[in-house]
Structure formats: C-alpha cells, structure tokens
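Handover notes (outgoing to incoming on-call)

Open items:
1. NAD kinase: sequence verified, structure written out, both below. Nothing else pending on this one.
2. Nothing else urgent.
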Amino acid sequence: MRFAVTSRGDETSNALQKKLINYLQEFDLELNEETPDIVITVGGDGTLLHAFHRFHDRLDETAFVGIHTGHLGFYADWKPEEVEKLVIHIAKTPFQVVEYPLLEVVVRYDDHTRADRHLALNECTIKSLEGSLVCQMDIKGEPFETFRGDGLCISTPSGSTAYNKSLGGAILHPSLASLQVSEMASINNRVYRTIGSPLVLPQHHTCLLKPVNDVDLMLTIDHASLVGKNIKSLQCRVAEESIRFARFRPFPFWKRVKESFIGD
Ligand code: NAP
Ligand code: MN
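NAD kinase structure tokens:
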C-alpha cells in the first residue's frame, strides 16, 4: 500500500508527520506523494481540506484519514496519542471506506470562452467585494428569487457544521446526498424579498446563481478564495464524485457533532 502524510506545518504536526512516516515504512508500506492509496493528514480540518484539493484528481483511488493536533478536527478525528494504534490498523487491516458527498461548482464568465469546474468538501460562498450582492437564483431551471445582501453559502452535508452552521443553517447527515443554500444577511422589506430560510436541495437539483449588478465578486471554495470579474453564473449541484474516508472504528457523525459543539 502506498501512503502520503501531510502536515499543517507547525512543529508538533511536522514531528508527528515524521514519526508516522517512519512507523509506516517499518511496516513496509511505501511512501508515495504522487499516487497514494491513503493520505494521512496531521493538523486540523484545514489540513484535510488542503489535502483533499491536492489529490482531487484521484478521489476514486485515495482514502483520507485525519489526525488533529489541537484545534477542532471535525474531519481530523484521530488524536496524536492514538498514532501507534492507527499505524497498526493501517498496516494490518483492510480498512472500510465511508463516502461523503461533495459540491460541484461550475463558474461561467461573460465572454462565454471558459467555464471553471471546482469541487468543494465544505462549501462555496459568493460575496460582493463592494456593496451588496444582488443575484438571481434559479432552482432546477426555474427562477426562485432575487437575493440582495452580503452573500450566499452553498454547503455540503459534511460542510454543514462549518460556515453554514454560523449562518444558522441546519446540520445535515452526510448520508443525505444534498446541498444547502444559506443566506448571509439578506435584505428583506417591501421592495426586496428572499425566502429567509436555508434550503436543502437533493441530488440533481441545480442551484444557479446569476449576479445582477456589475460588481467584482469574491468566491470561496473551502479555504481558497478567488476574486471573480465578469462572472456570468455559478452553477451548484451535488457532484458525481465523493470523498472517501478510511474508517478503522465506528465514530458516528452525531457523536462527532456532540463532541465538537456540545462537549463530552
Ligand atoms: P479556519 O479559519 O481555521 O476554519 C474555521 C474553523 O472551522 C476551524 O475551527 C476549522 O477547524 C473548522 N472547520 C473546518 N471545516 C469544518 C467542518 N466541516 N465542520 C466543522 N468545523 C470545521 O480555516 P480553515 O481551517 O482553512 O477552514 C476553512 C473553512 O473555514 C471554510 O471551509 C469555512 O467552512 C470555514 N469558515 C467559517 C467561517 C464562519 O464560520 N464564520 C468563516 C470563514 C470560513 P480546524 O481548526 O480543525 O481547522
Ligand atoms: Mn483551520
């Protein structure tokens, strides 16, 4: 089996990364940064998000597992003191795989010349760099509303505990292949009207966002942000691809939610 280990880059995580590489090599596993079967991330959720994007071209062949060194670690759910146990699991037992849905975002530009396709593990957000975002939202090909406000967040089920949660969105179990649209400070009065509630869309229901005013936009895809000029539309739906997590022990989603947000 080929493995890669990524680190947040701080001293603790780097030391643990080295330790893991040595241990796994002692078990005759092959260190391979290009085509790993398993990617172990050391740091936090941010580290796992980075690793996901680094290996997004081979999601079918890669399984992820995260160790958290401080911070929250919603995806990165192994503790540093469990490293020996994890290494033995990886080396000795065929692991189970749990798949979580992803978000596909296709960005189209005014000049029609190109379309960029992105995958998000947590979410995509759209905001205006200056003034309010005004944007037409179509659901499944039908006009739904004109949004006016700070921005919109389109999240995956596993990303529903991240930015989406801060916006009052619901927490969705990752077995529900869906996406959630939540609002950032929408303007609602006699003139402007939005639904106001987060929306959950099933697979194959596309949410199309078309900016109306001519402003520069800021898009984020997970941790990465890009300034968008001349964006015609953003097409969001549940992706065909999914992320695969290596599972060595049961750790139910709701238990993870409880430990992360309520405490033990
Ligand atoms: P960050 O600023 O370190 O992330 C913010 C927090 O979100 C961290 O505590 C992070 O955990 C946690 N987190 C990430 N994914 C999560 C998930 N699926 N469920 C629960 N918590 C999660 O930046 P980052 O590490 O690069 O992560 C990028 C993410 O930050 C974005 O995808 C977005 O969801 C989130 N974010 C949230 C807000 C907000 O809530 N107002 C604003 C901007 C961005 P770790 O400490 O373990 O990394
Ligand atoms: Mn982080």
